[in-house]
Automatic annotation (TrEMBL):
One of its GO terms (molecular function) is DNA binding. Residues 310-359, 361-427 form the Myb-like domain. Residues 510-519 have a biased composition (Basic and acidic residues). PROSITE patterns: HTH_MYB, MYB_LIKE. This is Myb-like DNA-binding protein REB1. Keywords: DNA-binding. Residues 143-156, 167-180 have a biased composition (Low complexity). Transmembrane segments: none annotated. Residues 311-363, 365-431 form the HTH myb-type domain. CDD domains: SANT. It comes from Tetraselmis sp. GSL018. InterPro entries: Homeodomain-like_sf, Myb_dom, SANT/Myb. The gene is REB1. SUPFAM superfamilies: Homeodomain-like. Residues 107-198, 510-529 are annotated as: Disordered.
Length: 529
DNA sequence: ATAAGGCCGCATGCGGTAGT
DNA sequence: ACTACCGCATGCGGCCTTAT
């Protein structure tokens, strides 16, 4: 099967079915090397040319590693993933139909607002999609993506999430930032540079390329072997977590289109996918789509895709009438949210979420927290941590793994969100009550830094599981997130940059080490807030 | 500072289905 | 009949934005 950047998909025969070799999997770092080397040789060209050369180099590398000849399409897929990664975003700045590849990473990129593009390469298409992402209020006007050409209609359903991000006048959503919601979004859909404060020209060492050459098609061939059993992929270790990038969403859209074509199903009416449960028509679709996203779990693809493709999913606030209906329907149907959703004309998950909020807001105090309430929260959290969450490692205490529903129940006057937000604020020094600080910050930073030194470029490449003894990955990551809360602008930073910043505040890394890190790819380090 | 609430991503478990 | 797998719904924790 072939996915083309214009959204059309054709079927080709797989040449062979040999099992994929792990040796054929090249790291983003490796791809980056290829690209930089190619860029150093020329001053202009097309993205397709760069791709072709990079693929050649990659194939060579595979042979040298003893991985044999890569499977048909395997490297193209890796290339696509590389392009959608943050590391590629550092290399790429999209400007209309042109793609500028930065030849070095020694400085921060000037942001160049993406302009409308036609059916250029996938990268330009993604940027254009992002550019079209509208503010929250406008979302309801967006069409359901079912029948839209892949890469053309890719509404970023969520508004940009960077409160700290300086942005120019963006009444029209121009230069809309990508959405790396947290450190966990390894691939943001790219173009982190494009979301930065605008500089108006292309830096001198930027290479100007066209997205594609006339007549060239950006064809991605997906290997059959990337398929994973639904139930077993939970055992995978190289899984990407966090927000789906636009590139990933586009892959799902393209997969949908292919699947529909192949099976004679409509793309403008997706009832076959959502209403005919387990129908033979739709059988295998999600598995198929997930195959194109080998770093994602099938269940994650399924959920993200469902929410993205759900026909006419309303993205407007629940009306009072709908709330009343919910209150009537829930006693009647219990938690049969699909049924409730059908009656309300809403997506089931939205109904469940809405009801949850309705209920939780009924029983809590509002307004300013009293000192007594804050103190009570502090006591409860500390008790909770003593009972469940505290792990002692080298005389350091880690907080997290807090069940906020439970805390809220015990607290009595505040709901889970209020408690959670209050606690997080306290860690940012916004509370009148001083909570126990985590004294393990330095150790945590140093351990993550060690992984960065060892080649990890993203949070999802960090081996969280083994990072802290007797502490599972989820809790360590939560701890990490808490730490980042205290770092202003962390959302806009790459992992190495975060390390530099964190070490400035908490760590012991030498100046020389910091400089080396920066030279290695980070933007200039700003003074901590 | 706080409330409100939309929406996301993940884990889990269950019922249906295909394979033996 | 038994088993493994598929597809999905649900519950939950949490992020982020907007309004007050």
């Amino acid at each position: 099967m072939e996915y083309r950047s214009d959204g059309t998909i054709a079927c080709v025969k797989e040449e062979e079915t040999a099992p994929p070799s792990p040796k054929a999997a090249l790291s983003f770092k490796q791809w980056k090397k290829f690209v930089l080397r190619i860029l150093s040789q020329k001053s202009s060209g097309s993205l397709a040319k760069v791709k072709r050369k990079a693929l050649e180099k990659a194939a060579d590398k595979c042979l040298k590693r003893g991985a044999g000849r890569p499977l048909n399409g395997e490297l193209e897929l890796q290339w696509e993933h590389f392009l959608s990664s943050k590391i590629a975003a550092k290399l790429l700045v999209v400007d209309g139909k042109q793609v500028h590849l930065k030849a070095s990473l020694g400085h921060d990129a000037g942001g160049i607002p993406a302009a409308e593009t036609g059916t250029g390469g996938s990268v330009a298409g993604d940027a254009a999609s992002r550019q079209r992402s509208k503010k929250r209020k406008q979302r309801s006007e967006e069409p359901s993506s079912g029948g839209a050409p892949a890469g053309a209609a890719s509404p970023s359903k969520r508004a940009p999430k960077h409160p700290a991000q300086p942005r120019g006048a963006d009444a029209d959503g121009a230069a809309s930032a990508p959405s790396p919601r947290t450190e966990e979004g390894g691939e943001s859909g790219g173009l982190g540079a494009a979301g930065r404060p605008a500089a108006n020209s292309v830096p001198a060492d930027v290479m100007v390329l066209t997205a594609t050459e006339p007549g060239e098609e950006d064809v991605i061939v997906l290997p059959e072997e990337l398929q994973l059993p639904w139930g077993k992929d939970a055992k995978r270790t190289d899984v990407k977590h966090g927000p789906f990038s636009e590139a990933e969403k586009n892959i799902i859209r393209r997969a949908l289109k292919w699947f529909a074509n192949e099976n004679g199903l409509p793309v403008d009416d997706l009832r076959w996918l959502f209403e005919e449960r387990r129908s033979t028509k739709a059988r295998g679709f999600w598995k198929f789509a997930a195959r194109a996203l080998p770093h994602r779990r099938i269940t994650a693809v399924h959920l993200a895709g469902t929410r993205m493709l759900y026909p006419e999913r309303k993205r407007t606030p629940f009306t009072k009438e709908e709330d009343e209906q919910l209150r009537t329907l829930v006693p009647k149907y219990g938690s049969q949210w699909v049924r409730i959703g059908k009656e309300l004309g809403r997506y089931s998950g939205d109904c469940a979420d809405r009801y949850r909020h309705l209920v939780s807001s009924e029983t809590n105090n509002k307004g300013k927290w009293t000192d007594e309430e804050e103190q009570r929260l502090k006591t409860l959290v500390e008790e909770y941590l003593t009972e469940f969450g505290v792990k002692v490692v080298n005389d350091t205490t880690f907080l997290d793994g807090i069940n906020w529903v439970r805390i809220a129940e015990r607290h009595g006057t505040r709901n889970r969100i209020q408690c959670l937000e209050k606690w997080y604020d306290s860690t940012r020094g916004k509370s009148s009550v001083a909570y126990t600080p985590a004294i393990s910050d330095e150790l945590l930073v140093e351990r993550v830094a060690a992984q960065v030194d060892a080649g990890a470029m993203y949070e999802y490449e960090v081996e969280w599981d083994s990072l802290v003894e007797r502490m599972d990955a989820a809790k360590v990551k939560k701890r990490w997130r808490l730490l980042l809360h205290r770092l202003s602008g962390a959302q806009l930073m790459e992992l190495p940059d975060k390390i530099v910043q964190l070490q400035r505040r908490f760590g012991t890394r030498t100046r020389e080490q910091q400089e080396r890190l920066q030279e290695d790819g980070g933007p200039p380090v700003a003074e901590p807030a």
